[in-house]
Amino acid sequence: xxxxxxxxxxxxxxxxxxxxxxxxxxxxxxxxxxxxxxxxxxxxxxxxxxxxxxxxxxxxxxxxxxxxxxxxxxxxxxxxxxxxxxxxxxxxxxxxxxxxxxxxx
Length: 105
Known about the structure:
Helix content is 26%, strand content 22%. With 105 residues, it is α+β, with helices and mostly antiparallel strands.
């Protein structure tokens, strides 16, 4: 799974990619956290995308450092899902209201 954090947003500028990568590794999740310049989520910064080959991709916005546990929980469910779809959005916790898009794989 590739997790991409917007480098232009506050979290990206603050170096949030490092603690996010560390938290995912601590859970044993196969993820690579990257950053990229502006993800065009400016109306809902900070943004982060999760994607994997053949899976639905997700884009979240309005993120803060307090969302780290929910991002890790989401990543765990995403990694376990064969197609990236989650049958129950409640596992997203606070991220449920921060989802900007689901992009079919």
